[in-house]
Amino acid sequence: MLIVSGSNFLANETNLASSGSEDRAAAKPDFAFESLRSYLDRTWLRCLMLLLFGAAVRVPAIQGELIWDDQFLAHDSPFIKSPLLTLEAFRHYLFPDSFAGHYRPVQNISYILDYFVWNSDTTYGFHVSNILWHVASGILLYFLLQRLLVSLTRGTAVSKGAATLNNRGARLRSTLSFVLALLWVVHPVHSAAIDYISGRADSLAFVFSAGAWLLYLRGRGINRTGLRRSCFIAAALSAVLALGSRESGFMWMTVFLLHVFLFEKHLSLRRKLHVVAVCVCITVVYFGLRQLPESRPDSAPVAAWPAPVRATLMLRALGDYGRLLIYPGNLHMERTVFEPGTFRNHESWRGAASIEYLSIAGLGVLAVFVAGGLWRGRGQHARVFGAGWFLLTYLPISNLVSLNATVAEHWLYLPSVGFFIFIGGVLFDLPVQYHRLAAGFALVALIGFSARSAARSSDWTTAETFFERTLAAGGSSSRAGVNLALIHSRRGDYVGAERLLRKVLQISPVYPLARNNLADAVARQGRTEEAQAMLNAARDEANNQRKDYTRTWIASFNLARLLHGQKDDTAAVALMEKVRAEYPGTWDLISFEAELLRSTQGPGAALGIVEEFARNNWWHRGAALALGRLHSERGDAAQAEAFFRKASWLDVHDVEALNLITLLKIRQNRLDDAFQTQRGAIARQPTQPRQYLMLADILQKMGRVDEANTTLAQAVRLQAIVTPAVAAN
């Protein structure tokens, strides 16, 4: 009903003259219809619908597990564990141990807020936040489209000289803005940006970029100098936050300038140049922030494709994206439009015909955009701007430059807006008799997109479901195969893990993670010598593979663990010393070597390497905890407590450090202090029986028997609740 009511505008124009001759019986239904339509035009109701539709189609993923990069970004990352680390987020890349130079401190700060509120053990909170950021993007898009369509379709009703028609033109623009925003919100191609916790960067950049644009437009309409400047300053700050959320903020800025220079006809050149100057200042601030990180990621390997290959891939990607926007049937991570053997000989060209239709589809998309831009009419400017928006934001993801994939569904989060604006421009010039048909298509699209989004959202419920469906849908990624094999290993299915990993190595024979995990699966089946031979071979090739793969040190790490399991700690320590020198500053290596040294030579031998790492990385909770343990073992209770206390500050939900402080104080017979500390641990973890058992023990030692019994009973009650839940999982 919402869609149809807005589309009747042109059809009703021809009936304005005869409306006064209607009889009283017919007037009542018309009045009721107009009242209903006026009610449905209310902004708050439309925003509520965007919220409800946007949230409803993503419900299946809310209880989803941590998948892929989620494990690090929403759980393991040391930078999200405390609000004290908010500023520290600006001094690090998103993935410190990666080729990717993603500088996204705002994304990390959003995880800090989630962790503070939800804790990383309750992933639904992170998923709810993702949905809210996406819905906020849709609502801001609705408001932005309302403003943009005024400039892109200005004069559509003014030419008839009727105030009533002007009002109906405004109603059409408002309704069309809502419908386009609603279709965008429920579109299933955005799944990886919403259902995947790690995909949040897209919606963060969208919220702050769209917010900056709206603040700028609002500021232009304010006469009071102070308020106007405040709006402009807020817009600039929001733009900086957008850039700190994702690099696509630059494409937002490009589209914004395109609109200012080509479609804001009433702005003087001087004011437009002022806008450019502010954009330049924002860019300078952003690149200044990017200089804060001390360590830089290594350069990723770049595909040296010749120009014809790159042009072909650009067309294929455009064809794939166009198909996904219209018919999002086959959605999965790890998409690709590149077949490595395609360009070697004539046979390989013929063999790749199954995906070459995408090149033709890409040419078709270009042809449609060109034809729409040349088609004269009231919606021409909207079509030109929509096509320009899409193509400009498509260029960085088009394979014009090498990225970590040839195509990715979530990369359409921003370009898809241009696609919908283009469709809106087409609707403005449809003949009147087709408007009801267009409304019907919009309703069918809304239902179809919503159903497909809900089905796609269910892919993210468990890691196993996600990887199995990714591979079944055509994802041929070695990473997906390795992750699925790891799931098999964790549940003890080492034979299944070995089978999967050997398949991966048939495709990528030197993939380090596959080789190392295969060695682990083989070792756990009792074939130790075979596993050791694999790890030795991987260790020998690690230095040659560093330019193509990250974490190549893991072969040496696993080999040292294998030696430790064979009681050959001398060889394990020697190996760890060597690999730590080759890969300095890697905590996994330092912590394992420190544990080897502690167990063989005592805590004093391990203290040095941990202290050096902690000095260079004050924010690292694991290092603070390790130092506390080492000092405690050496008998230095004061130093141990100081480091445990620091570890508790660096993780606002940490109880391990508080429990260790409690044990320290019990050993010192400082029972009152131990009682207070343990109460703090319970405040952080109020549903864990272990915390109450420790408190009951302290109360018993203090002679407060009745309180100890009450606390013990609480632990028993919680245990009765927790045990069935754990068994069910």
Written overview of the protein:
The structure is a single chain. This protein has 729 residues and is mainly alpha-helical. It has helices spanning 2-7, 9-13, 24-40, 43-56, 70-76, 105-118, 123-152, 163-186, 191-194, 201-220, 225-245, 249-263, 269-289, 307-326, 346-351, 353-374, 380-394, 415-428, 435-457, 463-472, 478-490, 494-507, 512-524, 528-545, 554-565, 569-582, 587-601, 603-616, 621-634, 637-649, 656-667, 671-684, 689-701, 705-728. It has 34 helices and no strands. 70% of the residues lie in helices and 0% in strands. The chain folds into five domains: 2-16 and 24-289, no CATH class; 307-429, no CATH class; 477-566, Tetratricopeptide repeat domain (Serine Threonine Protein Phosphatase 5, Tetratricopeptide repeat, Alpha Horseshoe), CATH 1.25.40; 584-654, Tetratricopeptide repeat domain (Serine Threonine Protein Phosphatase 5, Tetratricopeptide repeat, Alpha Horseshoe); 663-729, Alpha Horseshoe (Serine Threonine Protein Phosphatase 5, Tetratricopeptide repeat), CATH 1.25.40.
